[in-house]
Design goal:
The complex is a heterodimer of chains A (305) and B (269). Helices cover 75% and strands 0% of the residues of chain A. Chain A is built from 14 helices and no strands.
Chain lengths: 305, 269
């Protein structure tokens, strides 16, 4: 213990104590270090290493420099999945945030049945994505699915929602927004509860409308939460691919494929681990960039508080 | 005027909430009714458990349940031990390399095992663990997130309590066990709920490393069962889907507040 070290009078005892503290601490950390090194640090370095080598199908793999990267940049599928991922992020992140905010404002009010509302909004969060995908798959089934049945009632004809490249991404985005909005709601809810009620009273005395108050007071005060949620939602848009395995397999014609799903396909269907490593390096770089933005932003928040 | 605005909003909020529950309600409807009612809403439709019986008999769901239970217990137990020890070291010891090691731990917060599937597959295969439950669990046992959360908690433990335990002659381990662990209770519950939910629902990694009934968790079992090429009846698939999500859903309904608070705590850090 630190205090034990401080209070010890003799230098030799101090040194012995410091040495013991070091041994103790490292022993406590040993299991975590070994596991992290094996399943996080080594794999990151190995990914980078393998991305510079050719595939060793039978023979030895050779150092090929940046060849895998040149190939990746010329790969139409890679370009498409990257574009898809950006589209997917743009489609899901702002929508989830807006809905989460709306839900939080509603649940925060003394509204009839607010605990039921909170329950309804939050429930999708605890469901497995794979189960959700199963349910929504049937929603989107041509002709028999709930969506088509509903639209038929309105006089429209059936549509192959997940089989049409122009609708598949929107369908998946709607589902992901449904799954995620309630999760982000709880962070807004927590933030709303920290806004002092005096502010609202003061604004009411000044005759400010509710909308004005929301726009000029609530929204700016929620800014840190909004940033926090945006970053998490952005990371999720690169991490969530379970639904693709069940619903579209990235199709039709890669129209719904995302980067991580493409990595999965390249590595485990096409068995091209060298190229999969190259793609993984790209994904790691994206995630690291997002995380660094987060650190910078977190630092700033610490300074202001 | 104000009253009216409120009621319009209440109606809108309720409409959205009902819309939000629709997919779940729909899956329950089709799971508990004969398949001819799968796409037809009729209040007089007879209730049945037949779909569940058929799903249960057509695939080894009992085994999948057992596998998932073993998986989440193994992950949670491992995470609790490893994170507690590491967090204790980071929070209370001043030692050589502390800052560097902590930074190395944080790396996992940005690059999670979920994206390192290619190399982790190689590692698991080199360890000769493919197609086992430990294979699914191992990459997640050292959780940067758990270490981070517990370190925050342990740092806030008042020094007087530690001193008092020391005076009574407690060793480092004694202090950890008698002072820190009990005071971390809320953090442990929050982390535990999030971890169990995450690993109950996790899919891609288990799909990659498992290949047999003996090791597949529920999610992978459900995907195998529901694959279109198996030609299983839609109502039966929904019943299986409901079975997969039921335990967690029930736990959530029973301990709603606890769940929401845990997810929030864990998220905000």
């Amino acid at each position: 213990m630190v205090s034990a070290v401080m209070s010890a009078a003799e230098p030799r005892a101090v040194r012995r104590n410091a040495w013991l503290t070091n041994v103790n601490a490292w022993l406590l950390l040993l299991p975590a270090i070994v596991l992290l090194a094996t399943f996080t640090h080594y794999p990151i370095l190995a990914t980078l290493y393998h991305s510079f080598f050719s595939l060793s199908r039978g023979g030895a793999s050779e150092f090929v420099g940046l060849e895998n990267y040149t190939y990746m940049l010329e790969d139409d599928v890679f370009r498409q999945v990257l574009r898809n991922n950006i589209v997917f992020a743009i489609a899901t992140v702002p929508t989830s945030i807006a809905l989460a905010l709306l839900m939080a404002v509603w649940v925060d009010k003394k509204m009839t049945g607010r605990s039921f509302l909170r329950l309804a909004f939050f429930t999708p969060t605890v469901l497995p994505m794979i189960a959700v995908a199963n349910i929504w798959l049937f929603f989107y089934t041509p002709d028999y699915g709930l969506l088509d049945q509903f639209l038929k009632g309105l006089g429209f004809s059936g549509h192959n929602w997940l089989g049409d490249p122009s609708t598949v991404m929107s369908c998946l985005a709607v589902m992901v927004v449904w799954k995620e909005a309630g999760f982000f709601m709880i962070f807004y809810l927590a933030a709303l509860q920290t806004i002092p009620p005096e502010l609202k009273e003061a604004a009411a005395v000044e005759g400010a409308s509710r909308w004005y108050f929301f726009r000029r007071v609530t929204l700016p005060l929620l800014m840190p939460t909004t940033l926090f949620i945006s970053i998490n939602a952005l990371i999720n848009s690169f991490k969530l691919v379970d639904q693709l395995v069940i619903m579209t397999k990235g199709g039709p014609n890669n129209a719904s494929s995302l980067l991580l799903y493409y990595i999965y396909e390249v590595a485990f269907t096409f068995q091209d681990t060298a190229f999969a490593a190259t793609l993984t390096v790209t994904l790691i770089a994206i995630l690291a960039a997002v995380a660094l933005t987060k650190f910078v932003y977190l630092d700033r928040r610490i300074h202001y508080q | 005027m104000r009253q009216k605005g409120h009621s319009v909003e209440t109606v809108a909020a309720w409409a959205l909430a009902l819309l939000w529950l629709l997919p779940l309600a729909y899956s329950l409807w089709s799971a508990f009714h004969p398949s001819e009612y799968a796409t037809r809403f009729d209040i007089t439709a007879p209730l049945t458990l037949d779909n569940f019986v058929r799903a249960w008999n057509q695939a080894p769901f009992a085994r999948y349940y057992l596998n998932t239970l073993m998986l989440v217990s193994l992950v949670l137990a491992g995470q609790l031990v490893v994170s507690t020890l590491a967090a204790y070291a980071f929070a209370r010891f001043r030692f050589f390399g502390r800052e560097v090691l902590f930074a190395l731990v944080l790396v996992q917060l940005m690059i999670m095992p979920d994206v390192l599937i290619v190399e982790n597959y190689r590692v698991i295969s080199a360890l000769n663990l493919l197609d086992t439950i430990p294979a699914i669990a191992l990459p997640y046992i050292a959780s940067a997130f758990g270490i981070f959360l517990l370190r925050q908690t342990f740092k806030s433990v008042p020094n007087e309590l530690v001193e008092a335990a020391r005076v009574e002659g407690a060793s480092s381990f004694g202090v950890l066990w008698r002072v820190f662990v009990p005071l971390g209770k809320t953090t442990y519950i929050a982390f535990g709920l999030v971890s169990v939910s995450y690993h109950w629902n996790n899919f891609l990694w288990p799909l990659i490393v498992t290949n047999s009934v003996e090791s597949r968790p529920l999610t992978v079992g459900l995907a195998v069962f529901g694959a279109p090429e198996t030609g299983v009846d839609w109502s039966v698939i929904t019943a299986a889907t409901v079975m997969t999500m039921a335990p967690l859903l029930l736990a959530f309904l029973l301990f709603q507040r606890q769940f929401v608070q845990s997810f929030m705590r864990a998220g905000i850090r």
